[in-house]
Structure formats: C-alpha cells, structure tokens
Amino acid sequence: MEFEHVLIAPLLTEKSVTERARSRYTFKVNAKATKIQVKQAVEKAFKVKVVDVNTCIVRAKRRILGRSIGKTSGWKKAYITLAAGQKIQELEA
Prior knowledge:
alpha+beta
C-alpha cells in the first residue's frame, strides 16, 4: 500500500488538539493499514521521527432517522507519538 493511501485525514477534536502539546497527533487511516505502514507514511509525508503508533478500530454506530434504520461506516484511528520537541508544521495552524 502506498503512503498516499494510508493517511486519510487528521482528526481535529478537542482532545486531539490538546495532545499536540505532548507531540501526539491523531489521524484517520485506511482500515487495512498496519502500524508499520502508518509510521512510514507519517515519516515520509511530514519528515518527522515517529516514536510510537497506537491504532484502534472505531465501530459503526446505528442511526435512526424517521422510520429508516442505518449505520455509519466504521473506520480506523491512529495515535502518532513523535520524538521529543518535534511538531508537524502543516497541522499547527
């Protein structure tokens, strides 16, 4: 899998923005991507040193709208920890 297809989008939640002070970033990633592929993609895309990668699967939720019942899509989340003192300048805006 090429690194352009591994990272989908950065997550900009209140919790993930406060974690940036500790050089920890959160990304939505391809569900089939491994931790090694995520690490290589972040290092190649942003030219930083990745220390640790933690992933989790966000399950689909059931949604009811009127009489119809459906589901949101499930996805994969990756927590990226960078080396001390490093930041991703593209996300620090």
